[in-house]
Design goal:
By secondary structure, this protein is an alpha/beta fold. Helices cover 33% and strands 21% of the residues. The radius of gyration is 21 Å and the shape is globular.
């Protein structure tokens, strides 16, 4: 069975004349909610999203599919916010427990079927964006237990489903910076669907508090901080206006940025001043911080399109530990790695410099993190009377 997920209307898809069995089109994507990050699909109704809307049964649909075709407008080197909403809602397709593949942590598979994943991105795309998209497609296939058939790049939606690539677009020419050399107004963007209760929120609060302390110790003017919340699509991006520096805080969702943040960046590209410095502060539930790095390429693609300056970021591994150890000493064993990484980025922010790529590796061994995390999932499932391995 062939399933298509696309940001085309159903009428536009049918005009392509492509054979398919099931399709999730723009009408369904726009009517559906984004992932809430509640993990009810793992511990309350394993294998099925607790949100009963147009995407509620998408994981079960994928479990019956032999092929998954994705048609999407290129968005900085990956799919559009609408299609990413569907990918984020695919989390129940896998189980919360872990498996190790090629030395890295991934989720256990829920189903025996391994659909073939094919992606078509339409619209202009640079060579850098194409490299990013190929990497993310392979990562998605690995994490969801699919077989990657690659990514095609086509000029417009009419090329979706066809073989071959259109010529790559030239990289945007750099724009003259129109921001001060040192930060005066910093936007702290919380891209987590869980909002103020998230690990992302804690990391951003830690950064904001420490930034003020270091500014006073250094005897420099303390920048104005602007909080921008971005839990779902349609978030207000007006707080970015006038900011010379932006810190994008987010959890890794299906190997990339959450759909709401992708949507916000579409507006941000029109609002940011040329040369605005953009940093990332990202975390993920897997142990290895390195798995965040492809998402940095996505942010870099946004910066190129927006005329902003990619200034690097912090990647925090074992994000499931962030909140449980939040009340321990900031420079204690359990928080030291993340705290030092954030401090290094603060030094770069206050001096208007690049931070580079900073990895915050966990303080505990992988086996201990895995043991604690999986016990938590089993406990939550028991409390709900659910079977973690259910295959609806």
């Amino acid at each position: 069975m062939r399933t298509i997920v696309c940001d085309l209307t159903r009428a536009a898809l049918e005009e392509l004349g492509i054979d398919f069995d099931k399709a999730v089109c723009l009408e369904e994507l726009r009517a559906a909610h984004g992932c809430q990050g509640c993990f009810g699909c793992w511990v309350r109704t394993p294998g099925a999203c607790v949100i009963r809307d147009a995407l509620g049964d998408l994981p079960a649909l994928l479990a019956r599919s032999d092929e998954l075709w994705i048609f999407s407008e290129n968005s900085f080197g990956w799919v559009s916010a609408d299609v990413k909403r569907a990918l984020d809602r695919c989390i129940p397709f896998v189980r919360p427990e872990f498996r190790i593949v090629d030395g890295r942590m991934h989720h256990r598979l829920r189903h025996d079927r391994t659909p073939e994943l094919s992606v078509w991105l339409w619209g202009p795309s640079t060579e850098a964006e194409r490299a990013c998209a190929r990497h993310l497609a392979d990562a998605n296939a690995l994490n969801l237990g699919m077989r990657s058939a690659g990514v095609r790049f086509v000029a417009d939606p009419l090329g979706c489903g066809a073989e071959g690539d259109s010529p790559a677009a030239d990289a945007p020419a750099p724009r003259a910076a129109r921001v001060p050399a040192l930060p005066r107004r910093i936007a702290l963007v919380n891209g987590s669907p869980k909002g103020p209760r998230s690990a992302t929120a804690h990391l951003l609060v830690d950064l904001s508090e420490a930034l003020g302390v270091y500014a006073r110790l250094a005897g420099v003017a303390e920048p104005e901080l602007v909080e921008v919340a971005c839990r779902q699509a349609g978030a207000d991006a007006s707080g970015l206006v006038g900011c010379d520096t932006v810190v994008l805080g987010y959890p890794l969702y299906v190997d990339a940025l959450p759909s709401g943040l992708v949507d916000l960046l579409g507006d941000a590209a029109r609002l940011l001043a040329p040369g605005a410095r953009v940093y990332a502060l990202a975390n993920l539930g897997f142990y290895e911080a390195e798995q965040i790095l492809p998402s940095f390429s996505l942010v870099e693609g946004f910066c190129a399109a927006a005329g902003a300056h990619w200034a690097g970021g912090v990647a925090v591994g074992a994000g499931g530990m962030v909140l449980p150890v939040a009340t321990t000493p900031r420079m204690g064993m359990l928080r030291r790695s993340a705290s030092e990484a954030i401090d290094r980025m603060i030094a770069a922010i206050l001096s208007g410099a690049d931070a580079g790529t900073i990895l915050a590796r966990p303080a505990v061994p992988r086996w201990a993190y895995r043991l604690a995390a999986e016990e938590q999932w089993r406990r939550l499932a028991r409390e709900s009377g659910a079977d973690l391995g259910a295959t609806p």
